[in-house]
Amino acid sequence: MLGSFFKKVKKSLTRTREVFGGLVDLVRGRGKVDKQFLTELEKRLYLADVGGAAVATIVDRVKQSFIDKEITGEVEEFVKKQLREMLSAPTQGVQFAGSGPTVIMIAGVNGSGKTTSIAKLANNLKLQGKKVCVAACDTFRAAAVEQLTIWSERIGVEIVKNQQGSDPAAVAHDACERVKAREFDVLIVDTAGRLHTQTHLMRELEKIHRIVQKQIPGAPHEVLLVLDATTGQNAIAQAEEFSKSVKCTGIILTKLDGTAKGGVIFGIKSKLGLPVKYIGVGEGLDDLDIFNPDEYVAALFEKT
């Protein structure tokens, strides 16, 4: 049975579903696979911004399964099954530490929706009854600390900060000390919204990672990379570069409500093996949802 996530994501994926409509029209009611169909399937998956590696995997599976007589009904159900399996099992969101504070590092480029995603995540965790603290370690970008301060006050969570231009690692250190001393449940560590080509800022990200690791055993327990869905396949390139500096544990995919490129979610999983843990589907504080792959695929195949 489809739940509230399906209803919400169906509405937010309007533009992506328009693009996927061509794929749905192609596979719906079809029980036969031939060369012409496979060519068209490949074309429409590319148009849906699914990405090269994922497209090749799906087309090969459809072709081989028809040869092996695994496809006994409509092709649509088989394609949906492949897409669901590509996204893996449903996630429960943040994996909390067994004891002590859970440290969540947030990375991503400026403009990806990183600051608002931190606010939404902090609000989400607070509503779960968690005592949350935010570390404003993006001291490079003008107004970054101020923006996070405004969000923290609005939500009602504590913030550790310093002046713009100060050492981000020092802020991270102080935040770790505070959450240990005051028994916080969660520390969310913001990092500079760097471009993945900015080597000095990538090194700063690595330094913050080392600091929290030294201060709190097992930290960071999550390294979530914020990606803007509207950038399509470029989001995958960003994720690849960030993963070279720190071991990312999952993705927050933002701005799905404003793009036709929601198919990039399959490319991210296929190319990087990283789970999409949360998706952003609006501007409100409650518009960050734990990702459900079954309902996401079902929403894509709903006709507009």
From TrEMBL:
Record field: catalytic activity: GTP + H2O = GDP + phosphate + H(+)
GO cellular component, one term: cytoplasm
Family matches, as SUPFAM superfamilies: Domain of the SRP/SRP receptor G-proteins, P-loop containing nucleoside triphosphate hydrolases
Chain ranges of the SRP54-type proteins GTP-binding domain: 275-288
InterPro entries: AAA+_ATPase, P-loop_NTPase, Signal_recog_particl_SRP54_hlx, SR_rcpt_FtsY, SRP/SRP_N, SRP54_GTPase_dom, SRP54_N_sf
Locations listed in the record: Cell membrane; Cytoplasm
Main localization (coarse): membrane
Keywords: Cell membrane, Cytoplasm, GTP-binding, Hydrolase, Membrane, Nucleotide-binding, Receptor
Keyword check for Glycosyltransferase: no
CDD domains listed in its UniProt record: FtsY
Record-level Gene Ontology MF annotations: GTP binding; GTPase activity; signal recognition particle binding
The keyword Cytoplasm belongs to this UniProt entry's keyword annotation: yes
Membrane-topology descriptor: Peripheral membrane protein
Residue numbers binding GTP: 108-115, 190-194, 254-257
EC numbers for this chain: 3.6.5.4
Similarity annotation: Belongs to the GTP-binding SRP family. FtsY subfamily.
Complex and partners: Part of the signal recognition particle protein translocation system, which is composed of SRP and FtsY.
Function: Involved in targeting and insertion of nascent membrane proteins into the cytoplasmic membrane. Acts as a receptor for the complex formed by the signal recognition particle (SRP) and the ribosome-nascent chain (RNC).
HAMAP family: FtsY
PANTHER family in alphabetical order: SIGNAL RECOGNITION PARTICLE RECEPTOR SUBUNIT ALPHA
Protein name as catalogued: Signal recognition particle receptor FtsY
Organism: Telmatocola sphagniphila
Lineage of origin: Bacteria, Pseudomonadati, Planctomycetota, Planctomycetia, Gemmatales
Name of the gene encoding the protein in the UniProt record: ftsY
